[in-house]
Amino acid sequence: NLQTLQQQQAALYSGLGVAGVPLQVSTPIVDVSQPAPDPAGISILNSILASVSQPSHHQSGYKESTDRHPDRHPPYPLYSAPTPGPTDPLALERAARLYRSAASVCEASCTWSGQLPPRSSTAGPNSSYSTKIFLGGVPWDISEQTLVQAFSEFGEVRVEWPGRDYTSPPRGYLYLVFQEEGDITDLLAKCCQDYNTRDSYYYKISSRRMRAKEVQIIPWVLTDSNYVRCPSPRLDPQKTVFVGALHGMMTAQGLAVVFNDLFGGVVYSGLDTDKFKYPIGSGRVTFNNSRSYMKAVAAAFIEIKT
Predict the structure, then answer these.
(1) Confidence (pTM)
(2) CA 77, 83, 88, 90: dihedral to nearest 10 degrees?
């Protein structure tokens, strides 16, 4: 269960000399002592992780193009290194962003095609929501002030609008950050839901030129951030890979399915999250054997088609 997994993670971090599990990191840190193959693309990933392993004083953005919902996912880069990966939350977000850039120019070495397991649409009795939610289909002429006013009835709210500036057209998606989880449940209770897919909620807002426009609201359920495929007495950091450029709606279970189908031997997968427990576009996958682990590292970049 999740409690046992967290205890294993704490033991794992302790073994790596890390004082406690970082709050923004939901998965084990990579620590590999054996040499890994060096196909094309590995050197790019090495340089990315090397650049973010040092402390950063720059604020990083959130997920950008991968938060849209195309059927064709960009290649996902895999990484493993002889030193632990970044643990600083800003470094993790920076790595995820750099990995997306690398995935856009590097060719995938293998492709997975299939149907991913459904994402949780509601939090069950043993789970809860991130206080950060995704908003899609946002009117192009709406202002942050109007958005805050539209959702203020549910609690104090802040807008995060990736790429928002006044020199280019705004993107049609953004994030709302609330103070309490109860604010999320209150909002969802006022939304309409697509009962065919049960995947999204819809709420009507108005802008200067559009009245009662339905926007898509996608909450994140915390149990989707960790997935245990096979119970293991200990998660081995020497059989763990870091994965970047993850699609915005990829769950830990979906990540485990993809990697197990391609390489076999997956025991655990987890997504890295920000301080609001919302995925930042990177994660970790742990295998139960060295052969599967080495195959994953050698792949460097993979593509997912759904």
Answers:
(1) 0.71
(2) -40
